[in-house]
Specification:
Four copies of one chain form a homotetramer. With about 300 residues, chain A is of the alpha+beta class. Chain A has three domains: about 180 residues, Gyrase A, domain 2; about 70 residues; about 35 residues, no CATH class. In chain A, about 45% of the residues lie in helices and about 15% in strands. Chain A is built from 13 helices and nine strands. The mean pLDDT of chain A is about 95.
């Protein structure tokens, strides 16, 4: 269970008292504020705050005194145009602040997106909770035999059991020892900033993460992608749902032009043009490497 | 007058209908939303949106499930501690979005602060208004004789008149010609993206500017400083007032530890320590250059 | 002429004395160091320094102790893979420092690329030279009738003459007045930081601009594009030639996968797949707007 | 021993063949290129590349065609002026690329400095080495009793032995299990991207880290500070030595104005002024909190 009764009470308190504001309000996002969206076995994503909505994107694009365009329909058209033509600054005018709980090895990937603000729970200052990510059976995957950076089928039988047992017992032992070392009961107690080094990378950490919509969509394009590691992809998937409710026009445009789109190289475009003219193009006549040719076949279905 | 009746009507419309939100609300900032704060002869600053308040700084610093600290008093203490010890990330968790109208030569200084989001009114796409900054009499200053990068006393008499006349007539003529060139009345009309090159740097432009509180305070420290050029300082001064109403604890700490503070070099500290022990320190015995010594004298009153 | 004899002497002095280094050296770039590459009527681009070469991209991608991969051929293959799959960090490991002279209205577009370091010649501190961009006859273009943000055919006849005359005489007059105002001959002299406001946007400025290769390629993709304004595109074109000599493998991959490539939306991909299966797809059956359909037709030739 | 014979051979090969360059060369830095500077028990810092030198800072500040100022003496004066008055952009014109080997928990602090380029050795793609940081006896410190975020005296006797034993045996066991899980000997073998989660935070990782001089000095000011955790401070200390040899004027100015300097608040300045006039100021009459007063006493010696 990712949240204690005390924490739930804090959340309920924050949701209890709506206050009036003159700012842009997204009803779709208000419904999500502060609530826990569980991810993995102990993680979550929750919205702490947001700035702007679909109309705010248009308002900024037009540097206007009032709202965005004259009509909601025009807003959608303008947003689709901006997305299609890679205009990034109007999307930067919306901002999202999340509270995320996630395993350390996921946090290490996540933090590589530099254009965001982060406050992480400090294991130098505080004591971490005893919570570790243990993969579910279907995600306990073998190394991919074709891709160094991927996974194959799920492990089964004795091997799966052995792995699960290792992950659980090592995490438990390391945490027991962490507690032993920092304890000041009958001893001095090791400094927290040192003791944390004994904790494995599947321990959970937490942070506040704040990012503008343009950079968030870039993050989602990379991390909600099929090639992203499963453990970060599930966070991206969850955030996608929140964004779809927050700025529905922008999210739809993102799906159409980014997530569902593909970039074709000059050589790939040339092949497509020749094929559309009726030419029978093969890898040999394509001017592309075997690998690029295979990738193009996948794109063209 | 910096705003037309139509624009005022748009502003009034935005201020007419408060809506309920669960987000952090700063009453001090709600009072400012959308209103025009005039700066210089045709410029302004107005708040389009904000995220967070003083409590949100503490909430992020503590990566908490609920509000900031247990009491408002604790919030202030924590904020002062964070500011004093140069913790920047909790202040990054608040965000401000402004609509600013400003002369181009001011915009060129302003944009050098890179950690912000900007949407500028496009003179490639649209036609600029006929509005130019003309300094008031007391700001029509002579070149400083001691500082290449500063001003001295205000010009007076015939020289002042001549300068004002030049600034006004050149701006007017350049704008007339700008209109003539883009006109398609009886001619093709020059492309807007070219015609704009005829406009002088005191023409007004507009942009939406969005920045987090940490970077905003850094901007204000440099631009509300006595050494900043007057024409950007008046914008910074106006924004200072808005920030003071938005996050009063953070702004007070900023005044005490940043705006009102001074950084002393190792040599300067050494001098102060010796002086406090009763030693008579002179520039010769200070180990500092004449210029640094003079700067220290100013700091020490 | 973009460079004085004194400046040329400074350049010659810098090119006169090669010194030994253990760092990665790109012979293609050494040939360009410090030399003037003219752009527009008074502008230029010149290389002040660079860091890294093609091998350095691979070396960083592999976090290696020695050089990049085992062979030059492998280097090229790895670089193409990294470019194709949007790996950005290895390209960030190369850096370029340029000295650029450019009209102010071009500088204002350029500076919107925030991920770069800039030192601009200060008109607050120094006096600007009397140099203005005046378009050549073939670039004195009319406003586009189909695109607010574009140009049509070149102006001709009396209109062209009138426009040229305006641009030249307004620039000359504004500069004369700039000099008059700052002169301290028989008067106090207006502060430089104020006098500069009288100068039009086609005056030339200069800066040092330093950027990593990943962000440089992003800049080039947008600014060497056919939709970019001509006056910034010629700078991008010139830089492209320098990059091609500096990191030839990376530049070739950039041409194939970025400049020559196109991103197709989900709907466009669907159309292409249907067309390849022999279906006759029209705009009506494409699920795309008229504008998007037209854009797709252009891509597919 | 932080480097294998093969790695040493790669380093020797890189140092064997100096090549001519026209770029700015820092002899002090050439001597360091590629060599290993050991840090902690298995870590190191080594310089892979650099751009610029002291003169390059001045050259950029003056946007000049040739070298920096007319004389080396003027270079030093200008650099000290720029540092004293917080001019950051000229320092951004120098760049440093390091190869660093460091424990993961140190890497997690380090990466929070966002304005840098990073390529980290991927444990998703590759297999990590069996190398863990184990503190030396004098750094096996107890938790500070006055500062949650600090350490006290070194542990002694049985407690120290127990802690060392835990750290060593847990690291060894976790690594053994990591190897067991990824082995494909008689089993499928767990995906690397999953197996890595079993490794504790004192395992060593490696990265290429590239940063400009301004941001590097900011990093050093925070991480070479007495309040930084020892395990990152030793890296900062080592980098300080490299920078001192690379850009000696800039480093000296950094020591005088940043590392050896202190920022006094408005209230602290007021106290100092009153004390210099002979007034007996106490905490009660200082207008400062007890903590701030104590901090001021420390600064004033």
């Amino acid at each position: 269970m990712p949240v204690t009764p005390e924490q739930q009470a804090e959340i309920d308190a924050l949701r209890a008292n709506p206050r009036p504001t003159l700012r842009a309000v997204s009803d779709g996002m208000e419904a999500h504020l502060y609530t826990i969206n569980p991810v993995l076995d102990h993680g979550f994503v929750r919205v702490i705050d947001y700035m702007g909505d679909d109309a705010a994107i248009c308002q900024a694009a037009r540097v206007s005194y009032g709202k965005g365009t004259k009509s909601v329909q025009n807003d959608e058209g303008l947003i689709r145009y901006l997305m299609r033509h890679w205009h990034s600054t109007p999307f930067e005018m919306c901002e999202l602040k999340l509270h995320v709980k996630l395993p350390v090895f996921v946090a290490r990937q996540w933090i590589r997106h530099r254009t965001a603000n982060v406050n992480e729970y400090s294991a130098r200052y505080s004591i971490l909770d005893r919570e570790f990510y243990i993969p579910s059976a279907d995600q306990l995957a073998a190394q991919s035999s074709i891709n160094n950076q991927g996974r194959g089928e799920a492990l089964t039988g004795a091997e799966a059991e052995r792995v699960l047992d290792i992950l659980k017992s090592d995490a438990a032992r390391c945490y027991d020892h962490y507690q032993d070392m920092i304890s000041d009961d009958g001893q001095q107690g090791l400094a927290r900033e040192l003791a944390r080094m004994n904790l494995p990378a599947n321990i959970y950490t937490q942070w506040y993460w704040k990012v503008d919509l343009h950079n968030l969509l870039h993050f989602l394009r990379l991390r909600a992608d099929a090639h992203a590691q499963y453990e970060i992809r599930v966070y991206a998937d969850e955030i996608c749902k929140l964004v779809a409710d927050w700025v529905p026009f922008a999210y739809k445009a993102f799906e159409d032009y980014r997530m569902g789109g593909e970039t074709l190289s000059a050589a790939a475009l040339d092949c497509v043009r020749r094929m559309l003219k009726g030419e029978e193009v093969t890898q040999e006549t394509s001017g592309m490497s075997a690998r690029e040719w295979r990738e193009l076949q996948e794109v063209l279905g």
